[in-house]
TrEMBL record:
Originating organism: Prolemur simus
GO cellular component: endosome; WASH complex
Any GO BP: actin filament polymerization
Protein family (similarity comment): Belongs to the strumpellin family.
Name this polypeptide is given: WASH complex subunit 5
PANTHER family: WASH COMPLEX SUBUNIT 5
Taxonomic placement: Eukaryota, Metazoa, Chordata, Craniata, Vertebrata
UniProt cross-references to Pfam families, sorted A to Z: Strumpellin
Domain of life: Eukaryota
Amino acid sequence: MVIGRLRSDDIYNQVSAYPLPEHRSTALANQAAMLYVILYFEPSILHTHQAKMREIVDKYFPDNWVISIYMGITVNLADAWEPYKAAKTALNNTLDLSNVREQASRYATVSERVHAQVQQFLKEGYLREEMVLDNIPRLLNCLRDCNVAIRWLMLHTADLACDPNNKRLRQIKDQILTDSRYNPKILFQLLLDTAQFEFILKEMFKQMLSEKQTKWEYYKKEGSERMTELADVFSGVKPLTRVEKNENLQAWFREISKQISSLNYDDSTAAGRKTVQLIQALEEVQEFHQLESNLQVCQFLADTRKFLHQMIRTINIKEEVLITMQIVGDLSFRVSVLFRRVGVLCEKGFADHSRKHVYISSKDHKASDSRYH
């Protein structure tokens, strides 16, 4: 029953953090490691159940064969499953040199692309609050691609994962090193930059979450007051250059003010939907009543729309984003990487960069957290 559940279900609920099909094996990596261990308690499956093993390999190991069991302990399935006929046969497609070449080339391309993106994001002043709130999916996708590429390249180029006396494993590793254009210094720099990017994003989201309701209520109050002031303008009570009294517009703006004030923070879905409708209504009233000719009225309307847009951005700040970053940024598969790369660190002169140490330490701390296993 345990093997059946591990084969069919997402028991760690990780797939939602990795929505893209090409990330599926990474999403299921912890479950795959558990399944690998438990299969040894039912060795007949490894020996003779070819259909089950083919199903397992197609789901969990179509593009990877070096897995992390626990806290940096790695296993190369090509070596571990060599004595088991069904398991070995099922793994043949994954270990085919054309597939090895395809995966290595793909991750080489991905790592180069995302590294350029991350370096752009890390430029001073680029990650502003407004930019982050408008590009949450894009930023999370970049973070996923970074971590998936780092994971694959570190695991499949690790010296410990390849027996130098095994000709086939040595050939596969040489193929990976060639096709992935592997450079340990560049990979380590990508790890550092990704850690810094993740650290900054997390800190920004924590700050935004703590201020979320206060800011939302402030934007609501400002938007409502702008509409009340505009209603006073069209009532003739509050003089404004070239604005004639208009009772219909006065009543309409007062109603809009009331609707903004009635928005409920606790019902975020309904509030978000209603806010979008209010923005559309303000755009339409400016067009249909020829209000463009009065710059002061246009400014009132533009300010109100800006506050309403800020309300939508603010209401979309959700804790799920932090949870996704925590899942995606799990580095427990290579705890030993920091110790193995100390030489690279010193050689490149990073040891004196204390700020980098803070970012990488945030990943190392997470890697040592047993809650992820």
